[in-house]
Amino acid sequence: TTRFDVATTVLKPIEKGLFTQDFVAPAEPAPSRALLCPAGIHFDDQYVGEGKAISKEPYYLVNTDRAVGTRLAGDIARRQRAEGKIQPVELKYTGAAGQSFMAFAVSEMKVSLEGDANDYVCKGLSGAHVSIFPPREAEANGVFEAKNSVIIGNTCLYGATSGKFFAAGQSGDRFGVRNSGVQAVIEGAGDHCCEYMTNGVVLVLGPTGINVGSGMTGGVAYLYDPSVNDDMIAGRLKLTNVKPRRVQNGSPAADTIKRLLREHHEATASKHAKHLLENFDASHFCQVVPPSEEDKPH
What we know:
By secondary structure, the chain is an alpha/beta fold. It has helices spanning 45-48, 70-80, 230-236, 252-268, 271-278; strands spanning 59-61, 89-97, 109-117, 126-133, 162-167, 180-186, 199-204, 220-224, 243-246, 285-289. Helix 4 runs antiparallel to helix 5 (271-278).
């Protein structure tokens, strides 16, 4: 078969068979969507370039905007740090982010997204503070509840090493897979949560799927369980790797959960986090204990 560039080559019409009409590829590729902020320049370039005014308006994303923030993270790590220009950058977005939102984001970056995001959010996160929450007006009708809605896709925080992540809503499957240092709060997760996790803290404020902690060798996870049903929790875990342990009031684990709840509420204005703080009971949480944590104080 002769290779060709789909973006520039027009295909010959195919013979009619299963198809009812001819198909040709466009002679000219569709123009890419310009990642322009209200200031009229590329949203990342305003931070990468020299002497450019920083837009204070949030940038509106659509789900074809992939790996947003990664270009900036690379410039900070490669150039700005080498030049001694280490300063915090605050990024605000709205809309629906495409795959790999804030992949490899670094510690100088503080990011908020008012909307939702696809798969691989914060893949390889490297120190950034990232928060994702629904549009502020979404819960105003009294019907929509963020804690019962999916806000990010699958395989988020894959291979993340450091930083903090807060999402006011649920995730898809494999949340926190290979997490090795991030502290994260989510309000529900799918199957395989904390798979192969080696370090960090994950607090899940809602339901999870099955196989939690599969291959998990380090770090800590806490699952919200107001029913205080240890058998139900055990049914979600990969018991050949991890064990359940009920959290006690006044314990270091309880202090950690309260701290993360406060930070989660501050970052996302989560109504669920606020309710849990006002009615805090550590026994409503179960710690997922990998082998490395079995003998540590709890």
